[in-house]
Each structure stands twice: as structure tokens, then as C-alpha cells.
Design brief:
Layout (H helix, E strand, L loop, with lengths): L1 H21 L14 E4 L2 E4 H7 L22 H14 L15 H4 L12 H12 L1 H28 L6 H8 L19 H6 L14 H19 L2 H10 L1 H11 L4 H6 L6 H18 L19 E6 L5 H8 L3 H7 L14 E6 L3 H7 L9 E5 L6 H7 L4 H8 L12 E5 L13 E4 L8 E7 L6 H8 L3 H8 L12 E7 L4 H4 L10 E4 L3 H10 L2 E7 L6 H8 L3 H8 L12 E7 L55 H4 L10 E2 L7 E2 L22
Parallel strand pairs: 7-10
Antiparallel strand pairs: 1-2, 3-4, 5-6, 8-9, 11-12, 13-14
């Protein structure tokens, strides 16, 4: 009876889990996201539900990606209104029309910015939208209100670098002057830099600090990038187009269309992306608004405008929370988080003093109380090993996951990359309660005398590249040893077997691995493997001889199984009619085996052991192909004897990185991938060289 109840609970859990995937807003409770709908053909699809199904990864993420911070855009509703206006007024099939002069008298009277202005239908439409449409008024008013806080900081930087000051309106269009903004594709900060472009222009990023969010450093980087694009293309319209679409794509458009005129490219078939043809007029229109604020009802008397802020830079001790500094100087914590948005964990990094921006009005209070800012007095540092999870670290330091996440602003264990420095409570006692050994159900594999078999439990932070770097082996070898599909993503909880040299040191490699004695080692697909899983559920695997008059429903009632259960277990459809005398496999509650027989062997299993190749000492090339070793043969076992590789190889063997067993694709060959050493040219994901 208990087994039956357990089975029913499992089925109910599956149903509830499926419903949870479809439930609006079913995201990580640590950062609830507002429910939004996105259009897919004729459908309105839940964005948060899709995010849950994808596991929090962005659409199109590769197997080399792990955690991506959630998108953050307070202006999302206003931007949706803007996108709706653009779809309505600028359909993709209509190219912008160049207008010789300002089409209306009030436009002719406007003061022009220090960017080139060429009147066209889109610029005119944006100006009318910002002036006359309630949605456009709400958007531009919100941006101008925030601009008051940062304009006096950004314009001098642009002037210092030697670019037009009205390029400040690029930051308006990109982020609405919010340094905390993050896009769904990974662009970050006021200027929406992708990580690669930011690195080219000197913006560093690690677990604690992301300088793309630094309002001053990112502005210097953006000004330099725009200046370089202007040098390359010779016009600000083309420079802005390249800032949006990537200079590689713009160069391709110039080559194909044989013109260097942005406005001509906008009118050409297959000239520039539709979004880019709207981006440049939008920037120019915003710059015109900035020069003529009274005409657009956003003048100095605009209510709610943020006043200019005078900042000073102070040094804060290691591991100092922004909340504690805000309390010390009597300031709003949200303001300090915005001014120091580069401190993505809302705390200065452990181990070093860090510059901090505060309002000048709080300087005296900071200097009086700075001695009390000792960071976390009861915290110590923990350097993360590859494969460690928040739960394991909390257990080792005698604290809770919740406390560890709160102390380090952790919202997802996939952020734990190797050598990340975390803060942990110093007074906790390690939890020494024995934990069950993880089950390693793997193909049989033989090792050479010079080799050692170790095991690794996959986390959300695990990638092919990371494994190759951590263990110094080729990804293709890991694929062969574990019969993986190299085109699929590793899933948390998988236990992989990896062959390393006898001398391999987990401490030196900073890897959290398991030795053979620390796992329950069984051959995947074997009777032992199946029975171990059933034992966890209070079930046993037995056989049943079909009698005359039996059907699946009748048999299922005897053993509390559905016709679908029987079909899945025995690999036939649920409407199958078994012939009398057929021996079926049934799963029954332990102690209720009456009327059953010894079951047949499992349908699949690895019987032939195969020697493992010598692992490569280093993973020098771990990008797309990652170090291609000679393809290992199939099979696996654990001893120091070597079988003949020729007899071990079989067309029915396991998948490898170059030959993948996929339904309908037996022997499908993987196309040669591009080696690592990727260009660090600035680029946006929409193109090969985007921002």
C-alpha cells in the first residue's frame, strides 16, 4: 500500500511540475519577475513560463553558457509602448523617406544638436511621438527626469574624449540613463556593452565587480568606441549604426550596396537591419528634444526631475555592504546601489579596499564612522572549487544556504565559477552528518595502470569547456567515456566518470571531484542499475506471464500500474495486446511479489569493457571542438587489464563527439568546428561584430 501511495505521489508531482512550468510568474522566488507576454505567431506566450522551461538561460544559449543574470529594465513597459509605435509607423516593408527640409514650421524653429541632422520620415515621426503622443510623452519625460542626475557627469567625459556631447542621448536610448540595466542577451550598464566589447575597451568583470555598470568608466569606454567607429566610417550616422548593429555587419552592407551613405543604405533592399534604420533617427530625435526641452513640455519645470548630484570617491574596507554605508551616512540604499552599480553583489569585494561613490553631502559622516566599517567581522573567505555548489559550501562551513546566498547576493548556484571568492560565516561548525553516496550509473570502462578513474557531479555551472580546463582532458574523451550526446547540454545531477593520470591532484586543479570509493558505482542500463532505482522507490522488478484473456489494463490492475506504465516499461504502445505466454516486466511493491516470476534481462546494457585512452595532460584548446583526441572505442570497466581495442569497437557503441547516436541519424558525423582563439572584436550578438 505504501508503495502504491508513493507511486501516486510521484505521478502527482510530475503533473504539478508540468503545471508549474505553465504557471505565470513561476520563477526563482529570490527575484520574482513581473508577468509579461510575448507574441509568437498568433499566440501570447508567458515570458516567465518560457524562462522556467529554458532553465533561466537566454534563448539561443549554447552548451558553453551557464548562468546569465536576469534582465533588469525598469522602463520595460514604456519601451514596449515605443516598440508598438515603431511597428505601427515603421513597418519593415516601408523604407524611410528623405525630406529636404523640416516639414512643419515648429520643427524649422528647433535648435539643432551637435550631431548631423538630416530630416527624414522617421525623425519627423519620432519628434511628433515625443511631443504629441501620451505614450511618447511618458517615455521622454521619464528619461529627461533621470537625465538630470547624470548629465553633468557624462557630458564632460564625452568632451574630454573628443566626441559630440549630444552623444549623451545614446545612453538615453540604450538604458534611459539607468546604470543598473541588463538586457536579456547580456548587454549591461548605461551604454549596454556586451562583455567582449567592454573587455576591449578596458571594462573588467568578475564575480563581484562588473565595470560595464560603472557610470564613469563605461562612459569613457563608450566615447572611445564611438570615436573609433567615427574614424572608421567617417560619419556619425554610420558610427551610430555600427554601435547598434556591429561594424562587421555595417561593412558588409557597404560592400554589398556599394555606398557609404547611411540614409541610402536604409532605403536599399537588404541594406541594414530594420532596427538600425530606426535607431539612428531615434538618437537624433532625442538629441533635438534635449536641445528644445520647452517645446516638448520637458523643460526645467518638469516635476519629479532628479537634481544634479555631486559625488566624491572614498575607499571602503573589504566586504563592506552598501546598506551599511548608506546607514552610516544617512542615505537611501537604492541611491548608493545605483551610483555603485558596478558592485553587482551590493558589497565591496573581499580581500581588498575598493573605491566607492557617495554624495558629497555624506562625506563628513563617512569619515567620522569609516573605522566602524570593518566589512563582515565574523566572515571568512572561501575560494570556490570547480563543481562546488552552494549547498556543499554551506554544509562545509556550518551555515545555511539561505545565509550564504544572502551574504554573497547569490541568486543561482550556476554563478559559482572556479576560483570565485565567497564570504562565509567564520563561527559555523562543519556539518559532519554522513550523506548518501551519489549513484554513478556509467558505461563500463577500463583504465591503464598510469590512470585513475574519478567522478564529477554536474552542476548548473558545468560546461564542456569548464570540464576540459578543470581536468586537463579533451571534451571528446569525456563524451566517449560517458556515452553523451555532445550536442546536448549537461544537466545538473549527472555523475560523469573521468580518466585522469594517477598523479592528478584535485587540490592543485581546484576541482571538487569524487573518488571511486565515494560513489555507488554501477553499469548504466544493467539489471543492477534498474533495480537500484526501483529500490529507492520501494519497488522490485519482476516478470509476469501473460494469460489468455489478459490485456494491459487487466494486468495493470493486478500490480497498480497503468497501461501507459506497462507500455513504457516494456517498450510497446499502450494499446498493445500481448500474446498469451509473453513474459512482461512489471514493477511491484516490495513484499507483494505473489504471482510474479524472475524477470527477463534488461533490453539494453553495456557488456564489453573498453580501455580508456591516455588523457591529455592539458586542455590547450577548449572552445568549440576543445582538443580532439583519437576517438576512443566504446564500452567500459574497472581494472588494469587492457582489451583489444579492435574487438571492442562496434557500430552500436556509444556516442562520440564526432559520431553521435541520434534517432534516425546513426553514424551522423559532426561537422568540424572552428578552433578557439576567437577574435575579441567588439560585437553584439545580432551580428558578428555587434556592440
Amino acid at each position: 500500500m505504501l508503495a502504491r501511495l508513493r507511486q501516486r505521489r510521484e505521478r502527482l508531482a510530475l503533473v504539478l511540475g508540468a503545471l508549474a512550468l505553465l504557471a505565470p510568474g513561476s520563477l526563482d522566488a529570490s527575484e520574482p519577475a513581473p508577468e509579461t507576454l510575448e507574441r509568437v505567431g498568433p499566440l501570447q506566450v508567458s515570458s516567465s513560463g518560457r524562462d522556467t522551461v529554458r532553465g533561466g538561460r537566454p534563448d539561443g544559449a549554447t552548451i558553453h553558457e551557464t548562468h546569465v543574470p536576469r534582465a533588469h529594465d525598469p522602463d520595460v513597459a514604456a519601451r514596449a509602448d515605443l516598440a508598438s509605435f515603431e511597428r505601427e509607423h515603421f513597418p519593415a516593408s516601408v523604407r524611410p523617406t528623405i525630406i529636404a527640409a523640416a516639414p512643419e514650421p515648429w520643427m524649422a524653429a528647433l535648435q539643432l544638436p551637435d550631431l548631423p541632422v538630416r530630416w527624414n520620415s522617421q525623425t519627423v515621426a519620432y519628434l511628433k511621438y515625443f511631443r504629441d503622443d501620451p505614450r511618447g510623452q511618458a517615455l521622454i519625460k521619464g528619461w529627461i527626469r533621470r537625465m538630470g542626475r547624470y548629465e553633468a557627469i557624462l557630458r564632460p567625459i564625452l568632451r574630454e574624449v573628443g566626441v559630440p556631447e549630444d552623444l549623451v542621448f545614446v545612453a538615453m536610448a540604450e538604458s534611459g540613463f539607468n546604470p543598473k540595466v541588463r538586457s536579456r542577451v547580456g548587454a549591461a550598464g548605461m551604454w549596454q556593452f556586451m562583455e567582449g566589447t567592454g573587455r576591449v575597451y578596458g571594462l573588467q568583470r568578475d564575480y563581484w565587480i562588473d565595470e560595464r555598470h560603472d557610470l564613469e568608466r563605461a562612459t569613457y569606454a563608450a566615447a572611445s568606441y564611438l570615436k573609433d567607429l567615427r574614424v572608421r566610417f567617417g560619419s556619425w550616422e554610420m558610427a551610430l549604426a555600427a554601435f547598434n548593429a556591429g561594424y562587421g555587419l555595417v561593412m558588409t552592407s557597404v560592400s554589398r550596396s556599394n555606398t557609404n551613405n547611411f540614409w541610402a543604405l536604409c532605403e536599399m533592399e537588404s541594406g541594414l537591419p530594420h532596427a538600425t534604420t530606426m535607431y539612428v533617427p531615434k538618437i537624433i530625435a532625442a538629441a533635438i528634444v534635449g536641445r528644445n526641452r520647452a517645446a516638448f513640455h520637458v523643460g526645467p519645470d518638469l516635476s519629479g526631475s532628479l537634481p544634479p548630484i555631486q559625488l566624491v570617491t572614498v575607499e571602503a574596507p573589504p566586504a563592506t555592504s552598501l546598506a551599511s554605508v548608506a546607514k552610516l551616512i544617512g542615505e537611501d540604499p537604492a541611491l548608493l546601489e545605483e551610483l555603485n552599480a558596478d558592485l553587482v553583489r551590493k558589497r565591496t569585494p573581499p580581500g581588498r579596499r575598493t573605491p566607492l561613490r557617495i554624495p558629497r553631502a555624506g562625506l563628513a559622516a563617512f569619515e567620522r564612522g569609516a573605522a566602524r566599517l570593518g566589512g563582515e567581522a565574523d566572515a571568512q573567505q572561501h575560494i570556490v572549487r570547480y563543481g562546488e555548489t552552494v549547498a556543499e559550501i554551506a554544509r562545509r562551513h556550518g551555515t545555511s544556504e539561505a545565509a550564504l546566498r544572502r551574504l554573497n547576493e547569490l541568486d543561482d548556484s550556476a554563478e559559482l565559477e572556479r576560483d570565485t571568492v565567497l564570504l562565509v560565516p567564520a563561527r559555523g561548525k562543519p556539518d559532519t552528518t554522513p550523506i548518501p553516496r551519489p549513484r554513478a550509473a556509467v558505461p563500463p570502462l577500463r583504465t591503464l595502470p598510469s590512470q585513475r578513474l574519478v567522478f564529477f557531479e554536474v552542476t548548473r555551472a558545468t560546461t564542456p569547456r569548464g570540464l576540459a580546463e578543470a581536468f586537463g582532458v579533451a571534451w571528446d574523451s569525456v563524451v566517449a567515456w560517458n556515452d553523451l550526446d555532445p550536442q546536448a547540454r549537461l544537466q545538473p545531477g549527472q555523475v560523469l566518470q573521468i580518466v585522469v593520470p594517477r598523479s592528478f591532484s584535485a587540490d592543485a586543479a581546484r576541482v571538487d571531484l569524487l573518488e571511486q570509493s565515494q560513489v555507488e558505482l554501477i553499469v548504466r542500463g544493467s539489471r543492477e542499475h534498474i533495480e537500484a532505482g526501483l529500490r529507492d522507490r520501494g519497488l522490485v522488478r519482476r516478470g509476469y506471464r501473460v494469460r489468455k484473456g489478459d490485456d494491459l489494463q487487466k494486468i495493470g490492475k493486478k500490480f497498480d500500474l497503468s497501461d501507459g506504465d506497462l507500455g513504457r516499461i516494456n517498450n510497446f504502445p499502450r494499446d498493445h495486446v500481448p500474446a498469451p505466454g509473453t513474459l512482461l516486466v512489471v514493477y511491484v511493491a516490495r513484499g507483494h511479489e505473489r504471482g510474479t516470476l524472475e524477470p527477463p534481462p534488461p533490453r539494453q546494457g553495456h557488456d564489453q569493457p573498453t580501455p580508456a585512452p591516455e588523457p591529455t595532460p592539458e586542455a590547450d584548446d577548449v572552445d568549440d571542438r576543445i582538443d580532439i583526441d583519437p576517438e576512443p572505442g566504446p564500452g567500459i570497466m574497472r581494472d588494469d587489464t587492457i582489451s583489444d581495442p579492435d574487438t571492442a569497437t562496434s557500430p552500436a557503441g556509444p556516442s562520440t563527439a564526432s559520431r553521435t547516436k541520434l534517432p534516425g541519424k546513426q553514424g551522423w558525423a559532426r561537422k568540424p568546428g572552428r578552433k578557439s582563439g576567437k577574435s575579441s572584436k567588439p560585437g553584439k550578438p545580432k551580428s558578428e561584430d555587434g556592440k
